[in-house]
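pasting for ref. prot 1 ->
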Amino acid sequence: MQLSKIKHSAVFIAIVGIVLFSAKAIMVKLAYQYNVSSLHLLMFRMLFSLPFYLIILYFFTPKLTHNINRVDYLWLIFFGFIGYYLASYFDFLGLQYIKAGLERIILFAYPTLVLIIGRVFLREKISSKQIIAILITYFGVIVTFSGELQYNGEHILLGGFLIFLSALTYASYLVGSGWLIPKFGVLRFTSYAMIVSSICVIIHYLIVDRSSIFQYPYQVYLLGLLMAVLSTLIPSFLVSLAIKKIGASNFSIIGSIGPVSTILLAYIFLDERLTFMQLLGAIIVIIGITLVSWNTSKNLKNL
């Protein structure tokens, strides 16, 4: 019973974190209506969230229970650099050229990338149930976005390539976080990673831009604050906690709910149409998530 509760709570935490992260794409598209640059928008997201991570790191992180060496800190800096700086920057750039819906189907390549990276670098096995779950969820996402694939944009190839780079860097972060979180703890690892990412964004701004960030209407700053709290601060801890409980591979498959939540949010806030095929695809994706949840329960019972 206790293991079942752990499984259900972990899956629920993962889903909430994924849905909140998915809302970021909607906020980015809304902010682009005010002609804000992708770098400035990323700056607002990180600057508004940075004070929260500093407070959490100073006041709320428990003492380390593992021996941490210099190499561990170097890996943490590396994964903070690629996970919430590079991945976010590529994503923000790509969203300038393609729809939020199409962004999600390309970004959804990361579950497969997580499994491949884990297999190549960590020699983790890919179970038959994980393969089945991936096939089901991929099929659901393809059905969901069948209409979006016909989207014709002038820079669609560039946008798609940037989003794929975002998926690749985010997958690398997930694999690394699954290895480092047990050493640092959820709060400490997430806070350090986000602080590193914020510093990277600031350095990027100082090197390549330096234009005024105080020239936009209040809606841009409000969206930046919402992204910082609802789509960065809260889900970053939820995702780290979920990865700690069920592993990066299972979390990456559950992440298939992200495209579905983006469809619904885009329909509500961006007036993107919701078709029968999209609803059908959403149901198929949920079936895949249920399979992962059942598989996680079996794994926990075998512990």
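and prot 2 ->
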Amino acid sequence: MSNLPATAASSRLQGAEQPGTQQFLTFTLSSELFAIPIEHIREIIEFGGLTEIPMLPPFLRGVINLRGAVVPVVDLAARFGRNVTEIGRRTCIVILEVEQENQMLALGIIVDAVNEVLSVEPGQIEPRPSFGAKIRADFIDGMISLGERFVIALDIQQVLSVDEMATLIGMNTNEELAAAPA
């Protein structure tokens, strides 16, 4: 057996059986359906035990303790410029691994509900629209065609760009310091 992580090994096996097929986890956010490739997903946990940190932008809801590791949690709705996610009984945190400066970082995203895993053929993926989406175009990797409807496939590296979020956090802190009375 190779030294690849289980998700990478299983996706390679999947690809060997059905060339070109890709698997996506679908989830709901503000009644819209989104998808992310499963190779980025480490696990899905129930919402709870979130520690809020003062003076962070609304999209960074706080951190969780995941088996001794501190994992930042991003509110995906707020990251898309919408209202913060209302926590409900189906609200989950999807733990993802994103690459940053040649190392893998664990980040959590808050979603309203996790739906299913889709096996998608290459012909089902359409290019991202240049207009009409309710989120930034660079956050969209493509559109998955499911007959009469589409699911937005996210470019998770772009959505969770650590450099961009760090810049936004720095801007937010600087704005609050500038607004503070001297």
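The two ends are 62 Å apart (CA to CA).
The CA atoms of residues 46 and 92 lie 5 Å apart.
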